[in-house]
């Protein structure tokens, strides 16, 4: 159970996220929707503590995440893996090494700095890559892969952290529709097969409706809708955002996924 | 069509006005900057006594000096032995000693560059604004690097000659410290120019500072870091050939001797050898750079 209690983040005079209170049970697949600047990214980054909250608390299974420091904080970060819009792989390194980097928190620093990974860790990384049909590309440099492949490598790296939560910040915003589908399927598999809680930021309502158990809609830093996809009808969208659903999509960077 | 043009016109007028005023202020800024630079140029020329008249008077003398140090070579005896005047062998009659001293100098430069890089490159991550663990560490390491490189290496050499005695060790340490300061700054700037995404990915995965720098920053900045280190090697070869002036080993001691005793032909011979060595390093480092750039 992940609880956000009055989570707020201000950048100067601007409030990016305003008093968000949520409870997310383990194993849920949650879609966070909203237009650019609604505060989705800031919210996700605060959960991983890449961005410090200005106010409020994050509590995971009774532990106060907002108070963590040093090794405890790094442990929390390993526990809630993060997927980025720009993949954030190390382009110059091969795919296998990129995936192995997901182990950093769990192994001694000195041997990591010299890339002394064990055969067991390599086997684990290769098995994870194989799950996403990328075992053949293991020794290629990350920058030789397509965007969709890179994002799946990022998911494999995240799984190596042995996380319990996976946060995905606009994971398909830089991908074409076909690759976007492949990546969303991968996230759904992680949720189904590994039992991870997945919280994913999305531009498109259709994508969220198709894959998520629960949708949280944000506008100007606030949660304006929280419920199952079936409840987020066209009328509710109009109520919440004051515009029709297709207008909501205007300005969104990615095309909708067609079911 | 004409209606659209009519409604667009105020926008064009406003845009053109904004463009004109932006251009005016840009031109004014350029003129002010030019004026400031020329005033600074005149003041510094005046203070450092770099008058055109003195320059004009001195220039021919440089030519004279070069004419003096040029060897007196004769076609007839160009390839004769060391005993014959006008031969190449006569010009480079101490080539064996000089080659040995030059090899010592090159080794001094190499080991000093290596030591400097070992000290300077890790410090670059402390002194880069994006990877520095805190503002305090950032400022402290910046100031420290400045201190290392602002003191001329010849001054360090004097101190180390006093401490460790006459010989190459003093020179190596002096150049290494200066290199650490220079490389630290340049590499810090290379690190500041990287894309921060991969490092953020490492941090988000629970990596500590060492790990996030090692995997999220170093691979991205490796090319410029290598370039700077190789350039530093070249610069250090030059430093190492001068640092011998204060007794810190290498070809410098010999160069100092032949200059002060006015052994003109030997000056040109030694300078030629140093230039040759720099060319060698340049060619080799170019190849190394290409290989690393294409490598994973």
Describe this structure in words.
Chain B: GO terms for molecular function: ABC-type phosphonate transporter activity. Chain B: It is found in: Cell membrane. Chain B: Belongs to the binding-protein-dependent transport system permease family. Chain A has 10 helices and 10 strands. Chain A has 259 residues and is α/β, with parallel strands linked by helices. Chain A has a single domain, classed as Rossmann fold, CATH 3.40.50. In chain A, the strands form 2 sheets. In chain A, strands 6-7-8-3-9-10 form a 6-stranded mixed beta sheet, with helices on both faces. The longest helix of chain A is centred in the last third of the chain and has 17 residues, at 177-193. Chain A is globular. Chain A starts with a strand and ends in a 10-residue tail after the last helix. Mean pLDDT of chain A is 88; it is low at 251-256. The relative contact order of chain B is 0.10. Chain B has helices at residues 2-47, 52-69, 88-91, 95-126, 135-150, 153-164, 168-192, 197-204, 209-216, 218-243, 251-260, 264-294. The mean pLDDT of chain B is 86. Chain B folds into 2 domains: 2-59; 95-295, MetI-like (MetI-like fold). With 296 residues, chain B is an all-alpha fold.
List the defining traits of the structure above.
heterodimer; A: 259 residues; alpha/beta; Rossmann fold; four-stranded antiparallel sheet; 10 helices; 36% helix; globular; B: 296 residues; mainly alpha; MetI-like fold; 2 domains; 12 helices; ABC-type phosphonate transporter activity (chain B)
Outline of the structure:
The complex is a heterodimer of chains A (259) and B (296). Chain A has ten helices and ten strands. Chain A has 259 residues and is an alpha/beta fold.
């Amino acid at each position: 159970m992940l609880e956000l209690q009055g989570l707020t983040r201000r950048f100067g005079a601007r409030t990016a996220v305003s008093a968000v209170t949520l409870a997310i049970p383990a194993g849920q697949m949650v879609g966070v929707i909203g237009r650019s600047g609604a505060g989705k990214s800031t919210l996700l980054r605060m959960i991983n503590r890449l961005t410090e909250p200005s106010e409020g608390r994050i509590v995971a299974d009774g532990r106060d995440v907002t108070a963590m420091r040093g090794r405890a904080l790094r442990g929390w970060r390993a526990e809630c893996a993060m997927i980025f819009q720009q993949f954030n792989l190390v382009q110059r390194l091969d795919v296998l090494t990129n995936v192995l980097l997901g182990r950093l928190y769990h192994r001694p620093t000195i041997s990591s700095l010299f890339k002394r990974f064990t055969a067991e860790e390599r086997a684990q990384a290769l098995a994870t890559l194989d799950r996403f049909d990328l075992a053949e590309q293991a020794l290629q440099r990350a920058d030789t892969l397509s965007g969709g492949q890179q994002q799946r490598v990022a998911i494999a790296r995240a799984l190596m952290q042995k996380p319990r939560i996976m946060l995905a910040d606009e994971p398909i915003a830089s991908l074409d529709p076909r690759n976007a589908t492949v990546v969303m399927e991968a996230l759904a598999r992680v949720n189904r097969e590994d039992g991870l809680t997945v919280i994913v930021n999305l531009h498109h309502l259709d994508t969220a409706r198709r894959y998520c158990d629960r949708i949280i809609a944000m506008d100007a830093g606030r949660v304006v809708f929280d419920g199952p996809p079936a409840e987020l009808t066209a009328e509710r969208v109009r109520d919440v955002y004051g515009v029709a659903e297709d207008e909501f999509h205007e300005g969104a960077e990615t095309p909708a996924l067609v079911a | 069509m004409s209606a659209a043009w009519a409604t667009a016109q105020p926008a064009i007028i406003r845009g053109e006005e904004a463009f004109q005023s932006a251009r005016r202020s840009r031109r004014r800024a350029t003129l002010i900057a030019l004026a400031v630079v020329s005033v600074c140029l005149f003041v510094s020329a005046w203070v450092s006594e770099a008058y055109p008249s003195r320059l004009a008077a001195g220039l021919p003398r440089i030519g004279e000096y070069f004419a003096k140090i040029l060897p007196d070579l004769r076609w007839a005896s160009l390839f004769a032995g060391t005993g014959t005047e006008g031969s190449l062998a006569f010009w480079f009659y101490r080539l064996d000693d000089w080659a040995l001293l030059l090899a010592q100098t090159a080794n001094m430069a190499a080991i000093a560059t290596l030591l400097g890089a070992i000290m300077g490159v890790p410090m670059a991550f402390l002194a880069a604004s994006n990877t520095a663990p805190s503002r305090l560490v950032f400022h402290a390491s910046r100031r420290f690097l400045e201190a290392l490189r602002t003191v001329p290496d010849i001054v360090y050499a004097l101190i180390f000659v006093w401490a460790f005695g006459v010989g190459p060790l003093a020179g190596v340490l002096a150049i290494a410290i200066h290199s650490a300061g220079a490389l630290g700054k340049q590499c810090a700037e290379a690190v500041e120019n990287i894309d921060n995404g991969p490092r953020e990915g490492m941090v988000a995965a629970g990596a500590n500072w060492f790990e996030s720098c090692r995997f999220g920053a170093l691979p991205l900045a490796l090319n410029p870091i290598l370039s700077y280190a190789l350039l530093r090697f070249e610069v250090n070869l030059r430093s190492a050939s001068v640092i011998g002036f204060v007794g810190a080993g290498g070809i410098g001691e010999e160069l100092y001797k032949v200059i002060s005793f006015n052994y003109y032909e030997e000056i040109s011979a030694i300078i030629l050898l140093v230039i040759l060595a720099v060319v060698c390093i340049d060619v080799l480092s170019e190849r190394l750079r290409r290989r690393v750039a294409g490598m994973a």
